[in-house]
Structures are given as C-alpha cells and as structure tokens.
Amino acid sequence: MMQTASMGATAETTTPRQARDNVWPAAFIAGGVLFLIGGPLHPSEDPGLPEAQATADMIGSTAWISSHSLLLLASIGFLIGLFALTRSRMPLSTAAQRAALVAAIAGVLFVVEGVFHLAAFADDDAARAGAATPFLSTHMVMSLIVYPLFTFAVAALAVLSGRLLTHPAVGVIGAIGAVTFGLAPALVGLAGIESLDWMFPVGGILMALWFTVAGVTGLIRGSARRSAATSAR
Q: What is the pTM of this model?
C-alpha cells in the first residue's frame, strides 16, 4: 500500500517535469525561428535624410511593426523555454543551471524592453517634430542594460551546458553571437560607431540559430529516450 502511494507521488512529481522537458525545446525552436524571420524585416534608416526624419521614417514604417511583433514573440518564446529548462530534468551543472536561471530572469526584462521597442512606432510624429519620444527613449535606455544582461547569460549557458543542449562548437558560436548582439546597443547606439551596425543582424542570427539548434537537438534526444524506454518495457 505504501509502495503504491510512493509510486503515485513519484508519478505526480515526474509528469510536470516530463511536460517541461517537451516545452523548452519547442519554445526554443519557436523563439529562434521567429527571431530569424523578424530580424531581416527590420527597416533601416536612410543615411541621406536628417537624423530626426530618418528615425521617424524608420519607426513609422509598417515593417517596424511586423518586425518587432515577431521579435517580441520570439523573446516570449525564449523566456518560456528558459524557465521550462530550469525546471526540467536536464542534468545541467550548477554553473549552467545558474546561467539558465539568470537568462530566464533577464528574459522577463528582455520581453518588457521588446514591448517598448515595438511601441516606439507611436513616437513617429514626435521624432519628426524633435519632441520627446518616451517609448523610443525607454527602449534605447533599457537596451543598454537588458541586452547585455540577457545575452551574456545566454552565452554562459551555451558554453557551460557542454554537450547537454547541443554540440559544444554550436554553443561557442551561439555564445559569440549572443555577446555580439548584446554589445551592439552600447557600441552602435550609445558610442555611435555606425560601422558596427552589422553586430545586430549577425549577432542576432547566431544567437537565434543556437536556440533553434538546441531546441531541435532536445526534441530529437527526447524522442530517442522515449523510444528506448518503450523498447525496454
């Protein structure tokens, strides 16, 4: 009787973890793919126009809304995946587990920043008139803090997870991309080094590819484990 109760309790605690084992790979894939789609849609500033008009034209573009809507959804996917990963049965090392938790917490701020980033389209007229741009300005300030906090934690997770999430070489590439993307707001936006604007697309693509590959690897390995468990019965 006690053995039956113990088995029931174990099943109750295992089932949610099993569900999270399936959630994080799917969320990683969804986030990565949406990021890869939304990034290239981002409008560019026209260098031939005055700065205020170029900024207004960029944030007022319909491409701004479509791009940042997808990027916001991608950020939510990353957030869900990271929190699910920290609660899953993945045997991450203590350091990797901490990196995942920091990335998940920073992911909340990354989503909040993404909301202001998307909402910057509402500052179109204000930017054109040289007036205050609350949404755009909040996004720009937050990006200086939130981007490095989130991406550096993701980079640490990608490296510290070793072979658990995907191949270590993929992890290193993803980490380089994440750090590159995280430093871009400070170097391009704050320091004004326009020649480094490639850091946004290149870094973002590499980071998104790591999320996608890690998710696909997680699904494949999970499927293999379930097949092996079924065959062993």
A: 0.90
